[in-house]
């Protein structure tokens, strides 16, 4: 997980953003001392958390997978109009990538929350969720595409059915994957010495997706309960 060259970019992006859009208290288009302090604190928090989480993330990846790339890369989305978000993907070489937006770095209130975000996103790669969702989408596309063909649909309608099937298929087990990542992310966060319960408090500030059929994320309280149950299990095991 390469971090320090990116940290310099983060600091520049945060400060330049303040110059472009002065926050309350800024004078003459320049960031206020309070803004500079918050930016410096965000960078320091990122360095500290990433340095502690990296060995735990990569160790867990190697222990739970075989032949999978466990050399994580941290990416910062420095677009100022992006909302608080974190994501996991892979580059062309199959290297796992954890991405966070500047708004996410500003939104987290403590190191425990940032650590849990990293742990959760890292868990998606370890559990193979990208491949699983691609498989789910392919199955959905084939199923609805064949159903449309059986009804005598033309080529355009079949393609539309396949696209719809892929979307529905990718969502079918999405909530299960999120809960699995919450559980494994809790273990990684715990092993790195952070408090997953404090980290998962971030959920309780998010808009609640509730129990929506074929939604991408489970209700926030359910996710928090999974973290709480996992922490209780870790305590019982004396870890």
Walk me through the structure:
InterPro entries: Mito/Outer_Membr_Metalloprot, Peptidase_M48. Residues 1-21 form the signal peptide. Residues 81-230 form the Peptidase M48 domain. One of its GO terms (molecular function) is metal ion binding. This protein folds into 2 domains: 4-108, no CATH class; 130-236, no CATH class. By secondary structure, the chain is mainly α. The chain starts with a helix and ends with a helix. It has helices at 4-20, 33-64, 102-107, 111-126, 129-150, 155-172, 174-191, 196-200, 220-236, and strands at 73-77, 86-90, 96-101. The longest helix has 32 residues, at 33-64.
Q: Give me the number of helical elements.
A: 9
Portion of residues within helices: 55-70%
Output the helix-strand order. HHEEEHHHHHHH
- Average pLDDT level: 82
Number of domains: 2
Instruction: Using the CA coordinates, give the radius of gyration.
Output: 20 Å
Strand content: 5-15%
Structural category: mainly alpha
* Main β-sheet description: 3 strands, mixed
């Amino acid at each position: 997980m390469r971090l320090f060259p990116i940290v310099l970019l983060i600091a520049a992006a945060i400060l330049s953003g303040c110059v472009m859009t002065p926050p309350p208290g800024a004078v003459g288009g320049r960031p206020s001392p309070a803004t500079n302090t918050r930016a410096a604190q965000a960078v320091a928090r990122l360095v500290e958390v990433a340095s502690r989480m990296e060995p735990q993330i990569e160790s867990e990846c190697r222990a739970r997978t075989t032949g999978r790339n466990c050399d994580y890369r941290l990416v910062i989305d420095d677009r100022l109009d992006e909302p608080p978000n974190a994501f996991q993907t892979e580059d062309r070489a199959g290297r796992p990538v954890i991405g966070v937006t500047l708004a996410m770095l500003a939104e987290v209130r403590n190191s425990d929350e940032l650590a849990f975000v990293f742990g959760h996103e890292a868990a998606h790669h370890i559990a193979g969720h990208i491949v699983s969702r691609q498989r789910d989408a392919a199955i959905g596309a084939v199923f609805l595409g064949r159903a449309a063909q059986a009804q005598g649909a033309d080529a355009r309608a079949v393609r539309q059915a396949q696209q719809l099937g892929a979307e529905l298929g990718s969502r079918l087990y999405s909530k299960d994957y999120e809960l699995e990542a919450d559980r494994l992310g809790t273990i990684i966060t715990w092993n790195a010495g952070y408090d997953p319960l404090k980290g998962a408090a971030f959920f309780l500030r998010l808009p609640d997706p509730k129990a929506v059929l074929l939604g991408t994320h489970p209700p926030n309280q359910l996710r928090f309960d999974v973290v709480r149950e996992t922490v209780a299990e870790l305590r019982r095991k004396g870890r």
